[in-house]
Design a protein that fits this description.
The complex is a heterodimer of chains A (526) and B (199). Helix content of chain A is 21%, strand content 36%. In chain A, helix 1 crosses helix 3, helix 2 crosses helix 3 and helix 8 packs antiparallel against helix 9. Chain A is α+β, with helices and mostly antiparallel strands and 526 residues long. Chain A starts with 10 loop residues before the first helix and ends with a helix. In chain A, strands 1, 2, 3, 4, 5, 6, 7, 8, 9, 10, 11, 12 and 13 form a 13-stranded mixed sheet that branches. In chain A, strands 14, 16, 17, 19, 23, 24, 25 and 27 form an 8-stranded antiparallel sheet that branches. Chain A has 9 helices and 27 strands. With 199 residues, chain B is mostly helical. The N and C termini of chain B lie far apart (62 Å). Classes of the chains: A alpha+beta (526), B mainly alpha (199). Chains A and B meet through helix 1, helix 2, helix 3, helix 4 and helix 5 of A and helix 1, helix 2, helix 3, helix 4 and helix 5 of B.
Chain lengths: 526, 199
């Protein structure tokens, strides 16, 4: 064996491949299994990774340096090391021991960095848009179009087309709405050329667009030939003219307009607020800011890029169905997350199935919603239904709704969840725990209507996905359900965080029929 | 439900706003001692996060976010206790949140394994300073072509394919060389640290 042919099981060599990003999915799985099973391998892995991390620290140029350089401009503290090597500003700040930086400067830098980070002025790099094994990850989707005519290269584009990092869209005419995974929505106005950079960034090479960025997606960026526009929670338009000039118009909120070096050394970063517009000229001139943009131009731009969508019909149908449900005497609770409701907890309000609707997003491992419903009596029949968008599947159980009584083994306590096989489970204390059949994983990132109908009198648990019966399981000695304090999206007694969004959670004290479930789905289908 | 939006993760809610400004408009933040400790723990923090995610870019982002959270939670730190351990415990929740948010990481450790690895990594990464010092010596021991290749690899945006084109060599050969340099450096560091322990 020569130096170029290491043993296939040489852990250090495999780890070097991992660090270089060269392991495929199967090899990565094998490595993880090996680490999980062997304590010595765990130690070797950790020591190897510690060494590689320090190698990174020695040789790599941190992104935060570039942010500081780019964003602070002349205000940036001196961060070039004395020997003229490429600096890693943050790390040089961190490695202040070897640098003549004052502590005040360090504090100042850290505060500045903190501010920049808080504003999320970075984007997820392209490399991260590729999963293990080089499989691309969906980072955006064409959510709707209007009279869209695509160029030859983009033929076949249509609504619901999933988009990957690096994909290029050439729209000859019409409108196309692209929704990014982080929540930002961009309406492209043909003719234009646009590329997907990541889940939080795109690039406009020609033509115009309007971007609407919810607070959760703050930091969303649009690159263009001569400027990068970074959102600070707003709605804005960008137009790239044929000569390369870039116009930015802020309809609402605030953006940072960062001229790129190609725009000339004199160009400086500007921050624009609602009503302002700016032009970054391609001839090396300064950015020209118009304090009070033409309101008519702004209104026309917004109108031009507003897609007429069948929202009214769809959301109206959903609202009608919910109104009917609210009148159902068996209704125990209905959470639509639209307005004030009695639940508390830690979660985000995010976009629901419609542009004008709100859903609960369980964003971090510790998110949850506390509810207390249906306490003080037994429920022989129970229907639970919700619109759920699973953004993350794991090997762990994920709570849809868990009553708190399970830990005390209270008779009738129930847990409705996504199980480790990524289907539904409805478990009741001291009973078997039936599962639905189909895996929901292929529908990751899409809204699904999930429902379970439990009937202790008939001893059945029926699961529904998108209005269709998926599975019926007979349950021996089925007991009535006891509700009361419960958590949605997590479990108070353990970590079962839900990785996604939920809307229109219905808790009904009777068994809905197949037809009723189907109608509920049809009325709320996006 | 009029609650402030939570930014990122953590074991509890993090306000979406920056620390309040004082009346003078100057950021009121942690003291100099805290800043020094935060600066001093960066290597350890990065190594810890990197070992749990297995990916430099992700680790970079999570460490940056962890710094923000540490800054905001400065008052929670008990003076006299292990700052590095505290910082790692905060970063651990950021790692979990990162996994949750993106739904993936390079390694895909399951929840039980990442918990176990996190505990061990805290111990191993407490040797970050010694490891970095040993690594500098080992880097100095590389041949010029080896060192230049590694420096090239760490240039922003430089891929193995691009290096191969620049050097007019097959990409596979460049990759193999990089693997060998990385394993050689790891071995060198291991030997140096073991020798120091014996002294």
């Amino acid at each position: 064996m020569n130096a170029f042919s290491p043993a296939a099981d040489d852990l250090a060599y495999i780890l070097a491949q991992l660090v270089e990003g060269d392991l495929d999915e199967q090899q990565t799985t094998a490595l993880v299994e090996r680490i999980a099973a062997d304590e010595a391998a765990q130690q070797e892995y950790l020591r190897f990774m510690l060494c590689q991390a320090m190698l990174d620290r020695e040789l790599r140029r941190s992104r935060s340096v570039q942010q500081l350089r780019e964003l602070l401009g002349d205000d940036a503290p001196e961060i070039e090391p004395a020997d003229g090597r490429l600096a890693r500003a943050w790390y040089w700040v961190v490695d202040g021991i070897s640098q003549p930086l004052s502590l005040a400067m360090l504090v100042s830098s850290l505060v500045i960095t903190t501010i920049l980070l808080s504003l999320e002025l970075w984007t997820i790099p392209e490399r991260e848009q590729v999963a293990a094994g080089g499989r691309p990850v969906v980072v955006a989707e064409i959510t709707t179009t209007q009279q869209a005519m695509w160029d030859v290269d983009s033929e076949g584009n249509s609504k619901n087309l999933e988009l990957f990092s690096g994909e290029r869209l050439v729209l000859n005419s019409g409108l196309a709405e692209v929704t990014f995974a982080d929540g930002a929505v961009v309406v492209l106005e043909g003719p234009c050329e646009f590329s997907i950079e990541s889940s939080s960034a795109g690039r406009l090479d020609s033509g115009s667009l309007r971007a609407t960025v919810p607070p959760a997606a703050s930091g969303f960026a649009i690159a263009s030939p001569f400027a990068r526009i970074v959102d600070l929670g707003t709605e804005f338009g960008v137009q790239v003219h044929s000569g390369g000039d870039v116009d930015v118009m802020v309809f609402d909120g605030k953006v940072d307009c960062i001229p790129l070096p190609e725009a000339g050394s004199g160009a400086a970063r500007v921050q624009l607020v609602g009503g302002q517009s700016a032009r970054v000229a391609s001839n090396g001139q300064q950015v020209m800011v118009q304090e009070n943009g033409d309101a008519d131009v702004a209104a026309a731009w917004k109108k031009r890029t507003t897609i007429q969508r069948p929202v009214a019909k769809s959301s109206a149908g959903s609202r009608e169905a919910l109104a009917e449900l609210r009148a159902d005497p068996a209704l125990i609770a209905l959470f639509d997350f639209e307005s004030a409701d009695p639940s508390t907890g830690s979660f985000r309000k995010a976009r629901g199935r419609w542009h004008d609707s709100v859903a609960a997003e369980f964003f971090t491992a510790g998110d949850y919603i506390d509810v207390s419903v249906g306490e003080g009596r037994a429920w022989p029949q129970l229907t639970l239904a919700a619109w759920v968008r699973m953004d993350h599947f794991s090997e762990s159980l994920q709570s849809l709704m868990h009553t708190n009584g399970w830990g005390d083994e209270s008779l009738g306590s129930m847990h409705w969840m996504i199980n480790d096989k990524h289907s539904m489970r409805f478990a009741v204390v001291d009973q078997t725990h039936p599962d639905s059949q189909i895996s929901l994983q292929p529908h990751q990132g899409r809204w699904l209507h999930l429902a379970v109908v439990y009937d202790s009198e008939h001893g059945t648990t029926r699961f529904y996905v998108n209005g269709e019966l998926d599975n019926e399981v007979q349950v021996a000695e089925a007991a009535p359900i006891r509700l009361g304090p419960a958590q949605v999206g997590n479990w108070s007694a353990g970590e079962r965080p839900l990785g996604g969004r939920m809307d229109e959670l219905v808790v009904l004290g009777r068994a809905m029929s197949d037809d009723e479930i189907r109608k509920m789905f049809a009325a709320g289908k996006p | 439900m009029n609650r402030p939006l939570a930014l990122f993760s953590g074991d509890r809610e993090i306000p979406s706003t920056l620390p309040p400004k004082s009346e003078t408009g100057v950021e009121s933040g942690p003291g100099e001692q805290f800043v020094q400790q935060l600066i001093g723990v960066q290597d350890r923090l990065y190594a810890y996060v990197y070992s749990l995610l297995g990916d430099a870019n992700s680790a970079d982002d999570v460490v940056q976010q962890s710094n923000v959270v540490l800054w905001r939670k400065a008052d929670d730190f008990q003076p006299g206790s292990d700052f590095g351990a505290w910082a790692c415990s905060v970063a651990y929740f950021e790692v979990l949140a990162w996994r949750q948010k993106l739904g993936r990481d390079r390694l895909r450790f399951n929840d039980q394994l990442i918990q176990r690895m996190a505990a061990q990594s805290q111990q191993v990464c407490s040797q970050a300073d010694d490891t970095r010092r040993a690594l500098r010596e080992c880097l100095a021991g590389l041949t010029d072509p080896q060192r230049k290749l590694m420096e090239l690899r760490y240039e922003p945006g430089m891929t193995v394919k691009e290096i191969a084109q620049q050097l007019n060599r097959p990409a596979g050969s460049i990759a193999q060389t990089l693997y060998r340099i990385r394993t050689a450096l790891a071995d060198c560091v291991k030997q140096k640290l073991a020798a120091e322990e014996q002294e």
